[in-house]
Design a protein that fits this description.
- There is one protein chain.
- By secondary structure, this protein is of the alpha+beta class.
- It has two domains: 180 residues, no CATH class; 149 residues, Reverse transcriptase/Diguanylate cyclase domain (Alpha-Beta Plaits, 2-Layer Sandwich), CATH 3.30.70.
- The protein contains eleven helices and seven strands.
- Strands 2-3-1-6-7 form a five-stranded mixed beta sheet. It has a two-stranded antiparallel sheet with strand order 4-5.
- The chain is elongated and about 100 Å long.
- It starts with a helix and ends with a strand.
- The model has no long low-confidence stretch (mean pLDDT 89).
Amino acid sequence: MGSVTQSMTLPKRFYLPRCIGLGLGFWPVYACLPALPYHGPVLGMLLLYCFGWPHLAYLLARIGARPLDTERRSMLVDALAAGFFAGAIGFNPIPSVAIVAMISMNNMAMGGPRFTGMGALASLAGAALAWLALAPPFAGALSQLQVAACLPLMILYPVSLGYVCYQSAMKLATQKQQLRRMSKTDHLTGLTNRAALNDILDESFSSPETAMNDSVIALIDVDGFKQINDRYGHLAGDRALQKVTEIMRACVREQDTVGRYGGDEFCVILRQVDRPEAARILERMRALAQQNSCAQDGERLPTLSIGAAAYGPGASSGAMWIHQADQAMYEAKRGGRNRVVFAA
């Protein structure tokens, strides 16, 4: 059911333009019919096609097992019908070109050049059918009424089709933004992931405008995380990481970056900060984690070991800066965990 609903997107999107296009396309053909000897039967066919077919085509797509394929076949029917009615009015130049051109625009938007070529063949088949069945006289003359009947189709239908294409482009742009955001986000915590953190650091060290002057980077290890997983299960471990995420977010400022560096390690980049202020922020994280380290619902929440490094001459690259913070973090772990240590 999910795939059918998803594949109904295109038939839904083309339903209204088809109603508009065929409603407007009725008039150029109708304006040419009174002078023809077979105008009665062709008018009946025209009425059924222009005002009944859009709804039938949508219904067929809706009840079909493969709505997208059904819609493509319906668009070939449109091309066949356009050729037939162009032939039925004796290939009257402006009305014939108008209705076939509008259908060709549809086909190009639907399936590109190849599908447009298939539509052109269908239109030629429709024109041949009209020529064989009706033997229409060639209509070289063109009245003002016939020209006027074509104008709404030639003006309004491209606008409606353009709007459909605009909707598709906007939806695609939104999906690309979502994918880009997902590629930079850790799915469990919603934090910036390691790849995105590395990109931030690489950009900062390669551009003077985004240099890390007056910044501090910190690596944060969740103490005893393996024991939490082993004793309470991986879901409890996930909840512990999410709780640590909440604590870090509550402590940082708008200009700072918080990310999950991997497993049970997090990374925080504090910007526009001196060492004492950075120490206060990181100590607050550690203290909040310690306050919450008592058992809740039978689960123990972790404390934090934090290693920090202020930006300085020794940090010649993002990797070197991270290494300094990593060394400080291991000093914190060796010193008994649950503490903040700055790199010398």
